[in-house]
Design brief:
Elements lengths: L2 H4 L2 E6 L4 H6 L7 E7 L6 E2 L5 H8 L4 E4 L10 H21 L4 E5 L25 H19 L3 E7 L1 E2 L11 H5 L1 E2 L1 H13 L5 E6 L11 H7 L12
Parallel strand pairs: 1-2, 1-4, 2-3, 4-5, 5-6, 6-9, 7-8
Length: 238
């Protein structure tokens, strides 16, 4: 085994203390040197993503950055979204490139394309079409990723994450789109793993849902490009 093969892959995760970061961490590869950052104490390091210099320092020496930190509320207004989803997303992208990170993985959202008709299965190459301001900030993440990949050596994957939850959504207020867009924790971890480790591209927008029988987001290109292999299905999972 060479020294390079013996060296753990340093992966820095922002927003690691949030719902997604907490749930997927147990499923991530054991051979990663994972550094879990959040603005709240309790992770490996405290990081405020609105501080560009702090982001540069946190990403120094990392092979990959997985950016999960954000305000995840589709009902949020501009004042709430601006610091993390707009300024913070810019800072993380710029700092990752400045630090010479090989791969930047940004948590986008299916909300960036939620403006399409309900009976439309969105493909990776379809244009962004948000139906709320939160979705527009996630479209901004896709634009940031394209900028970084086109102008620096850092390659980028933006994940259009679906309805993330421990179990498939149920109840009278659950829509077919919610169920068709479900993403389980172990499938989300598999998506993040594949986004960090896949090679052969500069920039890719990936779809992040489980292997649901009916799918709001097409998974064909994501599975081919990243080698993503989801296992759960919202129509059969308990």
């Amino acid at each position: 085994m060479t020294d390079a093969e013996a060296t753990p892959r340093r992966v820095v995760m922002t927003g690691a203390g949030g719902k997604i970061g907490t749930a997927i961490t147990p499923f991530l590869p054991r051979d990663w040197d994972l550094r879990r950052n959040d603005r709240r104490p309790g992770c490996d390091d405290v990081l405020d993503i609105t501080d560009l210099d702090a982001c540069r320092a946190a990403f120094a020496g990392a092979a990959a950055v997985v950016h999960l930190a954000a305000v995840p509320d589709p009902r949020a207004g501009w004042a709430d979204l601006l610091p993390a989803n707009v300024v913070g997303a810019h800072n993380v992208a710029a700092a990752a490139a400045d630090a010479g990170v090989h791969r930047l993985v940004m948590a986008g959202s299916g909300q960036a394309v939620a403006g399409y008709p309900l009976d439309t299965q969105v493909r990776v190459g379809d244009r962004v079409r948000p139906e709320n301001l939160y979705g527009a900030t996630k479209a901004w993440s896709e634009a940031l990723g394209s900028w970084i990949a086109a102008s620096t050596p850092t390659s980028v994957v933006v994940l259009r994450l679906g309805y993330f939850a421990d179990r498939p959504p149920t109840g009278a207020d659950v829509t077919t789109r919610d169920k068709a867009g479900w993403l389980s924790p172990r499938d989300c971890a598999e998506l993040v793993r594949s986004a960090v480790e896949a090679e052969g591209f500069r920039y890719f927008v990936a779809h992040g849902i489980s292997a649901n029988r009916y799918r709001s987001l097409d998974l064909t290109e994501t599975c081919v490009t990243l080698g993503y292999r989801p296992a759960d299905d919202s129509w059969t999972a308990g």
